[in-house]
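Help wanted!
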Amino acid sequence: MNTETVLTAMLPEHLLLLGILLLLVLEIGSRRERDLLPVTLVIVFAAAFAAARLYLGDYAGAPFPGQFSVDPAAALAKAVVLGLSIPVVLIAGGEFSGPRFSILLLSSLYGACLLFSSDSFLTLFLGIELMSLPVYALVLLAMGRPESVEGALKYLVLGGAGTATLLLGISFTFGATGSFELAAFAEAVASGDTLARAAVVLVLLAFYLKAAVVPFHGWAPDAYEAASVPVTAYMATVIKAAVLLAAVRLFAGVTVPASLVGLIAALPLVSMVWGNLTAMRQESFRRMIAYSSIAHAGYLFFAFLGAEPGRYEAVIFYLIAYGLMNLLAFVCLPTGNDATRDRLDNLKGLFHRSPYAALLIAAAMLSLAGIPPFPGFVAKFLIFRNVIDAGYTGWAVAGLIGSYLGIYFYLRVIQYMFMSAGEEAAEAPPRAMVFAASLCCLLPVVLLTVFPGWLIDRL
Amino acid sequence: MSEAVMLNWVLFLPVLGIGLLVVAPRSRHDMLRGISFAVMALQFLLTLWLYLQFDADTAGLQFETRLPWIADWGVYYHVGLDGLNLLLVLLTAFLGPLVVAGAFSAIQKDVKLFYAMVFFIQFAMLGTFIAQDLFLFYVFWETMLIPMFLIIGIWGGERRIYATLKFVLYTAFGSILMLAAVIYLVYSLKTQTGISSFAFADLYGTRLPLDAQVLLFGAFALSFAIKVPVVPLHTWLPDAHVEAPTAGSVILAGVLLKMGTYGFIKLGFPLFPDATAVYTPAVMVLAVVSIIYGACLALVQDDIKKIIAYSSISHLGYVMLGLASLDLLGIQGAIIQMVSHGLTAGGLFLMVGMIYERCHSRDLAAYGGLAKLLPVYSVFFMILTLAAVGLPTTSGFTGEFLVLMGAFNAAWPLYEAGITWPLVLACTAVLGVVLGALYMLRLAQQFLFGESRAPHQPLVDLNLREKLILAAIVAAVFALGLFPDSFMHKTELAAREYQQLVAAQPAEAWVMNQPASGKSP
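Answered by r_m:
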């Protein structure tokens, strides 16, 4: 371990840690409640920038060999996750201004960064817990509403079950391979040993639970609905992205064996179908997004059928497109109190009240539905291309048909906004922060729409 | 080269139009309409220039642009004109300004969004026609759904939401399977030759095993057949047409339906020649069924828009028949028929829109004797009706006649060889012409002649704007009917190329036998 590597390689983490400490000091030191979001924003931005520089500089280094290492893929994952958090902080303005939100958010991001750099199951576990625990509390922050307690509790209990499953899986892996290194997972997948097989299944199930894949999705709709809009946006995009990127890291060097195909293809497929079908019936925007995210978790895990370099490329591109689009929709939701904001009915006639917001939400919905020319289409194409390249054509066709089921409920949102009469009173123009947040999502979306090759060629 | 840049200008002018609309003030409707018309007119003039510059004696693509788009996958922004898409691009650009002008008085709500959507769909349609890269084609193909969804859904009639969702869900289902086929096709090209490419020219060369071809062709054909639409996948069409605003109907009938037939001619048949040989009987049977079934349904409708909608199914059946005949005249006739149908159906929908604006009814029974009430209107309506029926000197005649010639040319040698079913099909298709005359003349008779009545009186005859729109369409109809030679000349080389691609024998000798006589597949 040398100090310089620790400083350079872990710069994003250090910045986050520094931010957490700074916010804690400010919290203790000041009497008045201060608006700390600008500080938070600067910290997140600085960390994202640091991660992006590591990625662009093709940095690779291991400050703690065997536990923590940075490679360009990890740096990119950090940059993506931190970058996606920027709009979340920007729209948190109306709801949270105290330090609690900021500290919890930064801690959770710290956990995510740890996760992407983990080389052993210990760091992985630490990262995943550090990432999840603050989110339980973040959900509870919307305590104004009674269901938020219920949602948070459900999330906590099921999250705990996920943790237990993961721990069990880790110990089985250790039992089967005698190692805590992440590479042991690939070894366990390759071996036909019963213990190793159980370990693989348990670890996979833990990830399914964290990413809300059917039938381990029960917590998601309640937790998403319980949280207030910025936190839901955070869970649907950043947390989901972090879990999936960690899974990609875990699966490094793994070629999915025939015995696992059922588990890796069937549950995600069910997830797509069930998520898309159930989303059609929702009246609450957050619940709809929850089911949509269950379906998207399905597409994302489908990508694991594909072979190695393409898998990473597909997952990260998908997460960028999906995260940006989801955030765009959340950012543009009309203002109002939390409960009315959430009703889909509230979107009726939005085009006449606020054309800008309506057009952006429409673009977000079309992209999530995977309709070109939006980046969601290229992302979907990437995933299914890899699945077909890996020889699973039948599964790919089933998955595409599953994705077809999702088109209706996304279109329904557009139908509400453009084709239904609603309140006529014009919406107040968005606050500067919210507008900035929408630009943060919109500009990369436009870039990815017009030049998807710009990103894909780099990956 | 500057000429190639022109084609890109034509494609991206609608985007420029959207940009202009965005900055224009929302409440100044006249200004919005003026901008839209000016941009569309400019687009048409540029396209006309391209058409005149197009060299009919050179095979292959002209005005070609090829730039890397997603270089990693071998996806290129590759556009160009050839004999197959040239006339369709011209048709699209020709209808653009007419659609815009036709909506001047009809669209009063959300004018800005409306013209932006018309530009958007114009962009997507032109892109689909001129794309020479499968990925690009698919992107444009699917993009088309978005503006159409909004055009029907926002400015449509009473059941617009049902109609528009039905339209999108039908077409999207076909496209999803096509997407799987596209990915698989490109993947097989890569495994066969090692190159990762989406270019049509490269993909034409892949010769997959027959069973794979059959499945892939099925996926492509489903998507295209829904768009055409071929019976029994046509049920979205009457709903979409009836509920769409006039401009939507014109775009739908004029251009969008040609996407399906264009897809068959550009991709479906040439990509999978062996599967085509297997499927040709099925395609021909479905084409003839569409001709007859569409005509029969058109015969019993009371809603004027529905009559024209079902007549579209029937007319596009001819296009399919011509394409499947693989006879040179049949193929050229199919292309002419596509353009001709775009002009006549588009014109008739515009005319129905004009009467609807005056009387707010599309019920045939409510009208009668309009020849006395609206003499100028009636003259135009009669001309377009006769063109739709296929009266000589009009474009409809050229198209239908050539298609039937092609069908007979293809059927005769088989008949002499003892296979009768193609001849039976061709004869049945002729019956469609008679039925066509029957339903169109029934429409004209009830509408224009007899006792004068209209739901709303007094009626004002066409104003100058409407007269000019219709005069332009009628002029085009006659141009195509009287001088088909120059148009056909431009398509000839491409049609021959298409014929060769489809008829090419595979290297190995495992060609399927012709199906046994008399049996439908």
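OP: Thanks! One thing I noticed: DSSP finds 22 helices and two strands in chain A.
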